[in-house]
Write a structure and sequence with these properties.
Elements (H helix, E strand, L loop, with lengths): L2 E4 L12 H11 L4 E4 L4 E4 L2 E11 L6 E3 L3 E4 L5 E4 L7 H11 L4 E3 L2 H6 L16 E4 L2 H8 L5 E5 L9 E3 L6 H9 L6 E5 L8 E7 L2 E9 L14 E3 L5 H16 L4 E7 L2 E6 L6 H8 L4 H13 L1
Parallel strand pairs: 1-2, 1-7, 7-8
Antiparallel strand pairs: 2-4, 3-4, 4-5, 4-6, 9-12, 10-11, 10-12, 13-14, 13-16, 14-15, 16-17
């Protein structure tokens, strides 16, 4: 399968923890030609989705990515296009999905579904699985909600990687200013949730392939940060998949498959679903290190099966 990866520039990729690297390397191992481009390299000409892209080979010793000269190719020259641009999920990201919508070839994850499945809002379609949640742009709503809990979490609806996530309470004299910052003084919406004390035991990442749980691990916050994100100091440790975790995965499975969301990472704290990551999920290398399970080949098999169907 000729494969195109729409992603951040390859010179920014740290191969030690990057999942796109795994997919590209494993594609190459199968003899599949690989190319890459950024979202800004996508364009439309005579109604055809096109890309200014480079062929690339992957090498364990640096330089890890060795690209050919850039050339213009139709997206339909490829059997699969992987949308692997990291968030933020902004209008530039959405515009890239509009171009990808025009492709007749297989795009993973499905660009139409990416637009519908915001990583924080999408989870709210399963309210019985989520923490108590408020979505608002008004301080008075936040104060009223906060009064019902010992602590709450404020976070941007369009954030990623733990950016802008704060823990506060109704008695915190900073609640007003934090709410102003998160809502841009009422001009933007934010998400407010009850604080889950189980975060001390870790934020569980579960990797789903075609809706099936195939890998999982815990991210435990460091001593100086409440967030379970690896880039802010959270440690990664092995864990078991609980019956509650399996029930959450079972509840999501059919919808994810129907929407063409083949590679998904969900986040679970305690017994609550907090996020459904569909834009550029990561965790493949952590699953290999902690479980000895290679999910790259499974994802390539899933792409192959969808392409043939």
């Amino acid at each position: 399968m000729r494969s195109l990866f729409v992603m951040d520039p390859v010179d920014r990729v740290d191969i030690r923890g990057d999942s796109s690297w795994v997919l590209m390397r494993d594609s190459q191992a199968r003899g599949w030609p690989v190319a890459w481009c950024t979202p800004s390299d996508l364009f439309v000409e005579e109604h055809r989705p096109m890309a200014r892209c480079c062929g690339v080979t992957m090498h364990p010793e640096g330089p890890h990515f060795r690209s050919t000269e850039q050339e213009i190719r139709s997206l339909d020259d490829f059997e699969v296009v992987w949308m692997r641009k990291d968030p933020p999920f902004d209008m530039d990201y959405i515009f890239a999905t509009y171009v990808l919508d025009l492709a007749d070839t297989l795009v993973l994850n499905d660009p139409r579904s990416i637009k519908l499945a915001n990583e924080k809002m999408f989870a709210l379609q399963w309210p019985d699985l989520c923490p108590n949640t408020l979505v608002t742009n008004r301080l008075q709503d936040i104060r009223r909600f906060a009064a019902g809990f010992d602590r709450i979490v404020l976070k941007p609806w369009d954030g990623n990687g733990g950016r802008g996530v704060v823990v506060t309470s109704a008695t915190d004299r900073n609640l007003g200013v934090l709410s102003e910052l998160l809502t841009d003084e009422g001009r933007s919406f934010c998400i407010v949730q009850e604080f889950l004390p189980e975060i001390a035991q870790g934020d569980k990442r579960i990797i789903l392939v075609e809706g099936e749980a195939r890998g999982w691990f815990l991210r435990i916050p460091g001593e100086q940060d409440h967030r379970g994100n690896m880039h802010v100091g959270a440690s990664v440790v092995p864990c078991e998949l609980s019956e509650t975790d399996r029930a959450i995965c079972d509840a999501l499975r059919s919808r994810l498959k129907k929407m063409g969301l083949v590679f998904v990472g969900i986040d679970v704290i305690g017994d609550r679903l907090t996020e459904i990551n569909v834009t550029s999920p990561t965790g493949l290398q952590e699953v290999l290190q902690l479980q000895g399970r290679e999910l790259g080949p499974e994802l390539l098999d899933a792409a192959l099966a969808r392409s043939a169907s």
